[in-house]
Amino acid sequence: MSFFSLEQKWFKFVKSSQIKLLAFFLIALISIFFLSVTLGSFDFNLRDLLSRKSDSLDSIVLFEIRIPRVLLAAFVGASLGISGASLQGLFRNPLADPGLIGVSAGAALGASFVIVVGSSFFPEFIFGTFILPFSAIIGASFVISLLYIFTQGFGYQGITYMLLVGIAVNAFASVGIGILTYISTDSELRGLTFWTMGSFGGSSWQLIMPALIIISLTVLWLIPSSRKLDLLQLGEPEAYRLGVDVRRLKFKVIISSAVIVGLSVSLSGMIGFVGLVVPHLVRLLGGVNHNYLLPGSALLGASLMMGADLLSRILIQPAELPVGLITSAIGAPFFLWLIFRIRKS
Amino acid sequence: MSIEVNNLSWEIEGKSIISNISLRIDEGEILTVIGPNGAGKSSFMKLLSGDIETYFGEIYFNGVLLNDISIQERSFIRSVMSQSQEIVYDYSVKEIIEMGWLNRGLSNYSKDFDEAIQKIAIECSVENHLEQRFNTLSGGEKRRVHFARTLIQLWRPSGSLEPRYMFLDEPTANLDILHEQKMMKLIEKKKNEGIGVLLILHDLNLAAKYSNRIAIFSNGELVDIGKPKTVLTDKTLSSIYGLEMKIDKNPFRINYY
Amino acid sequence: MRKIYIFFLLLPFSIWSACDKSNDPSRVVIAGGSITEIVYFLEYEDKLVGIDVTSNFPEETSEIPSIGYVRALSTEGILSLKPSLILGEEDMGPPLVINQLKLTGMDLKIINEDRSAQGILEKIECVSKILGITTQERLNKIKNLTRDINLLQSIAKKNEDKDIRIMLILNMQGTSPIVAGQNTSGDGFIKMVGGKNVASNFEGWKPISSESIIAYDPHFIIITERGMSSFSDIESLSNTTALKFTNAAQLGKIYSEDGMAMLGFGVRTIKTALNFAEIFSK
After folding, report:
1. CATH number of the domain at A16-34+48-344, please?
2. What residue spans define the domains of chain A?
3. Quick check: C80 and A42 CB within 8 A?
4. pLDDT digits (tens, 9 = 90+) for B29-46
5. What ipTM was predicted for this assembly?
6. Taking a C-beta distance cutoff of 8 angstroms, is the pair A52, A275 a contact?
């Protein structure tokens, strides 16, 4: 009987420079968190806050409105970042992103469907319960299963093929959302436009707590598989021969992505490009191994998203810009640059 | 300890790829499989590697059925090198080699690790490239790096008696003459350290020079198996390759016309 | 989650008591163009601290801070203006934000909209009650408006007997018009002027085909000004689309009008409706 154990501890195979970078990301995250919490359209009277008048408006805005919102932005950013990183690893494709390959659209479609169809039966229940996030997760899983089938189990098919499938799914989801918009009544419509632009407004503790817990657990579940994602880069047969249960790894990454992207979309609509841009930035800064890449993408994604939300809140205050607009404005040029870079090599 | 193959057969969609093959691979020997294209050599290696799940016949590793050995356990017993796929991300050469380092409960990321990597990198002549990006290497250099990874996978603390095997499918492809010889000598060295080696080669002279035994495949069947000088005959080779061959005895050399 | 149920349980009550006088109408935020119009009509505009983007009449509204689109409001943004009263209509959103504002104890009143002349009057009275308007001048203005409404209603009644078919277009989606179906503000407007909405077979604002346009054969066609912004004038609109096959186009009975003035169901809608009712009565 062999005395070798199998647990791949994540902190092995991380360079010391990468550990320093991760620490830096963490510090940046905490700093941006404090920045986001203190800045905004609402001016706080610090004295009121510090004298602990718990029913003052200042206190309510800070603790019941702003902090939940910033936390949600952080968790959604982390979800999209780490999902993008793990999908890029799974597909062995640097252009994988929950948005580009249609996962976000699938989640939005699932959620929209429930809004329009469900609102004829239980209007009040929709936002209050887990039906909405659950249907978003189902929508996201459905898309990932389609991708699985069309890429024959995520075999190495080349960038073009995967993007084609993503384009098809996005088109399909647009049609679906379009049909739903068409048959919806005016009051349901106000819910649908939200999905395509993204926003963290209206977040409250009751709304986000279950999601934050589930996202945290899922991320913690995913991270130990990082080393296996490295081995997968050699090719599926190679990884298999190195002891990786490839099928199980695929399912793990798929389910994690579906859950965290589905939850994120159900709470904040579709926010594009974060899953694409963040892993590449993280790689550029410190290297490609997944033990560093996955946690790094989560941390950097959280920071960037909080920053984008901050901008969305202050650029045209007291009005708000949809946060998806800001991430696209930065992400789209970066995407183009990425394509050129791949074309060169 | 050895690998035992009994009556192995495998087919795809009704077409027979491997037909009733039985043989044995011992620790500390090099068994080379030769034969024309489509003879089933690579498929045979895939079957032994555990890539394929359904087949007829039995494969035993050290007395245990392959199907009873978990995926992780298999990686401790045998390492495989075959056609490699493109690596999409910018891993360094060192990182690629490190991927062969299976997690060991006791000496995890220890001094052993750094020493072993260094030593094997030198053996494979890639020690100067360790910090380079893998994708900037030439085809032959990449091959040597994969070979280093295959060797690291079988690395054990000295004094370990665990039986290990190495499967290599055309390891010398893309290598210049110098590195071809260096690799064959390295494989020989590992054999002498006790590793059982299953080799697929197309160069018959190379096979004759380095193998302890040779297995001749043709049309999915085992035509003959034994010491090189015994099984490599004019008649056998000419018939399976469809090419006129003549063998010189002293020095042993296969000529083809 | 419990709080959301309570909110919806109280909703019917909040509508019923929506016109109660506000305790402190000194800093008002409005999400809804028609309400803003009413506030200017009642000469209460100096108390406005924030308005949404649909509140674009009169011109002076551009100087008031904008809280964004009525369906995509920001809780903190609105609160940063330190309002004492928030007024809006049912389309205020998103629901989560409205809920959040209510939970902070903000005085948020959703004003019922009934798309008719009487409904407008009730809206104006509701707003004036909330703001505590008692001065005689302002009350007189309401009286004058009531006169206009009575005139409108009498002309409209006469129009009803004439069976006047009207098609109301929001905008053009390429060459397909988006037409007012049942239960839309457009439908409400058509009823106000005493006409019959040709689009009796569908709900909401929907694009319709060229064949339907011809089948509907309206006597009059009304389109919003923004809706025909991609056309230089009414002639080019009717010539380049299927509208040219209608009787209305051939007789030159296509009219364009400011969208909010017509469909906002604020003060301007009365005048606009009166205007059209008179045109159609001939």
Report:
1. 1.10.3470.10
2. 16-34+48-344
3. yes
4. 999 999 998 899 999 999
5. 0.91
6. no
